[in-house]
Amino acid sequence: MAIPFWRKLMITRLLFLLLASLISQTSQAFCGFYVAKADASLYNQASQVVMARKGNKTVLSLMNDYQGELQDFALVVPVPEVLKEGQIHIGDAKIFAHIDNFTAPRLVEYHDEDPCQPRVMYEMMSKSVPMPAAAMPQKAKSDKSLGVTVEAEYTVGEYDIVILSAKESDGLETWLQSSGYKIPDGASAALQPYIKQGLKFFVAKVNLKEQSKTGSKFLRPLQFAFESPKFMLPIRLGMINAKGPQDLLVYILSEKGRVEASNYQTLKLPSNMDIPVHIKDDFANFYKVMFETQVKKQNLRAVFTEYFWNMGWCDPCAAEPLSPEELKQLGVFWLDGNSQRGMGIPVQVTRLHVRYTPDSFPEDLVFQETSDTANFQGRYVLRHAWQGNPEQCEAAKTYFKQLAERHEQEAKTLAELTGWSVADIRKKMNLDDAPKTGGADNQWWEKIW
Q1: Residue 344: what pLDDT?
Q2: pTM value?
Q3: CB of 112 within 8 A of CB of 384?
């Protein structure tokens, strides 16, 4: 069946959603927890994690926003081995912003063409030094009595880093407290499973003097490389000092296929939906409500895929693909010098969005790389109506009849995605003001006035 010509569309604009607009101000998440000196109130707000994974090799990059005064604090993250200094690196926040923009859910906009003069037009769119021994805390005796061993200490950028091993969670909690840190309630119980697994603890303490030299008000990303057969992300520690449900965005760079959670259900968000054009000015709010609605439908027990694509190209592009150098900075170690943007490269990016509570996600996230290579993006479509008259030609009468049906479907789709009242949506769309077609299906008196 031939496609009605009013459905032949012209791309005119691309809008994409920034992370700050996606996540509510009260959301918090991280794969570790903050422990602050004195009584400082620091807690996680919105977390981004990049994982580059091939075989048993992983590069984990952590970017985090926080609330509260910038004071001495530490980040505690379980790691599978004692990291050497060369395995730890300071990342570039701009690359995090780039991968966020590249994979962000997007709004695309089309304009119906004149049904009386059908033609298709396209607008092209481009668019670290080890700490001196004398400076190291002399706590060997007390550490040993607590079952805590300081395996290594480094200063990398603005971070003083300690790698710890522990025999008992109570001893580790005591060690942190005796070192001047306020531990969130429940830390001991949360630490115990990692100790039983034989994991080490990466404690990155901010050196405020060094941090002030960076000229930034925000902490730069921390990155570390390690080898482990487990493809997982520890998230339980981040639940200790979080307020309410937490949001976590995970960007996973893999060689061959889409990545999904193996211990939780992974779902693709509703996508490629036609929605009313007035959402153009309210897209951030629409997406937040839509995502929250989908999360509630799954009782906060699902991982949502927002994007999956080859990193060499995109269609449409919310941002340019990351360059080979940027991918290398994020830990993609398997690229050779022949990889170029604009063509398929052996790097796939999966964007996963998780909102969870301690009850809904009692386990850490475990991932698996699948054989699925089908592209996917969170994409929402605006279709602007032709601004003509139904009496201009016979095709226009058909167009406006189909347009009314399309608008009604857009209203129902928006209501289903968000839970908003379909009556309120119809009112905002001015559906009662739709032009009369003057066709055979109209009543005879509609032709008089």
Answers
A1: 78
A2: 0.81
A3: yes
